[in-house]
Task: structure prediction
Amino acid sequence: MSDAHERHRLQSLLDAMPPVAAMGIRLARLDAAGLRLEAPLARNVNDKGCAFGGSLASLLTLAAWGVLESRLRQTGIEAEVYVAHSELEYSSPLYEDLAAEAPPPEASAFSALLEKLRARGRGGIVLTAEARDAGGRVAARLQGRYAAVLRR
Result:
């Protein structure tokens, strides 16, 4: 599967979710360094003129979800991916368009997930994602446990 095809497939999954489509989320990058999602501030603004915390939470959750969804698919694994638990830390307001980046899963953790999927048909992994401002400062960070369940 080509990178362009995988980006299109993942963007189609995002677009199919009405709340995600309403946020204007677009897949900006998907490569060996991870995944980057972007959304316009105008669609995700709060009463203070900065990014709505719920929008940041959604963007971060989806970035980590997407990087795992894509990595499993590239490995030939057909699985449903769910967020099972997450912790968010908001460091500073974000007064610009939103962007969230999720690095690929660590190799050892991903290998352990694959072993669990093969043995039990399900498994979990901890992933992170960050939203930074234009100056590179972290505005919000997510650490989440994601569950993967093989499709039957």
In short: The chain has four helices and six strands. The domain at 3-150 is CATH 3.10.129.10 (Thiol Ester Dehydrase; Chain A).
